[in-house]
Amino acid sequence: MARLLLSSVVVGLIVLFSAGFSEARDYLVGGKADAWKIPTSDADSLNHWAQNSRFLIGDSLVWQYDAATDSVLQVTKRDYVTCNTSSPIETYTGGQTKVKLEQYGPHYFISGAQGHCEKGQKLIVVVISDRHHRHIAVSPAPSPAESDGPAAAPAPAPASDARSLSGGLFLTVALGAVLGLIM
Ligand SMILES: *[C@@H]1O[C@H](CO)[C@@H](O)[C@H](O)[C@H]1NC(C)=O
Asked: The whole model's pTM is what?
């Protein structure tokens, strides 16, 4: 019985650890070096790339570009839509830019190069979930059309917390029992 309890605890720790502390990732914008440029087609667009990734709080976006001719502007939804570069939230220069995603919801980026945003050099990244929910995220991301600015989107409902906790406990007991039988 002591052994069963011990193995339950060990397995429980492993389950909680792997669910809660999965590593933050760096995403190279566009998936390759020098992708921060005017896209040649729709399929080549940065938003097409972004739609195939799941961005979580703590992940980072990395841009590589020619510092002499380009930059990265983080802007409001309105400025994203109108390609207005006059008052960005943040301006990044230097050819190598790393931005950590710290909030839920959409983040809007446009090129600082004259005329590039209008030709499609722009990016929406939607943060859908924090690390604790990587394996069980249930709430769909709010549509970028629904809110203004990166801070506006609400966090997913806390219901998933209870679900993950009871799920983790169940796993813990089940795996612990199996281990206890084996050992
Ligand atoms: C761009 O944004 C600035 C600041 O919000 C505003 O004053 C300006 O009118 C905008 N320009 C255009 C073309 O919308």
From this structure: 0.65
